Amino acid sequence: MKTKQEGRSLQEEALEKLRKNPVAVWSAILIVFICAVALLAPWISPYPFDEQYLDQVLAKPDARHWFGTDSLGRDMLSRLIYGARISMAVGVITALISLVIGTIYGAVAGWFGGFVDSGMMRIVDILDSIPSLVLLILVKLIFDSVDIISNPELKALTGMLLALSLVSWVSLARVVRGQILQMKQMAYVEAARAMGASGLRIVSQHILPNIVGPVIVLLTFQIPSNILSESFLSFLGLGLQPPFSSWGVLANDGWRSLKSYPHLMISPGIAIFMAMLAFNLLGDGLRDAFDPQMRGRSG
Amino acid sequence: MIARAWGPAVLGLFVLAVVMSFFNFEISKWQWMLNGVVFFGGAVVFTISRGMTFFVVKRLFETVFVVWMIASLTFILLRVLPGGPFDSEKALPPEVLANLAKKYHLNDSVPKQYLDYMVDLLHGDLGQSYKYIGRDTSAIIAESLPSSVQLGIYALLISYIVGIPAGVLAGWKQGSKTDFAAMFLAISGVSLPSFLMAPIFIMVFCFWLGWFEPALWEGPGYYVLPMVVLGLRPAAVIARLTRASVLEVIHSDYIRTAKAKGLDSRTILFKHVLRNSLIPVLTLSGPLAAGVLTGSFVIEQIFAIPGIAKHLVLSVTNRDYPLILGTTLLFSVMLVIANLVTDFLMAVIDPRVKMI
Question: Which end of chain B is more exposed for a tag (fewer CB within 10 A), N or C?
Answer without folding.
Answer: N
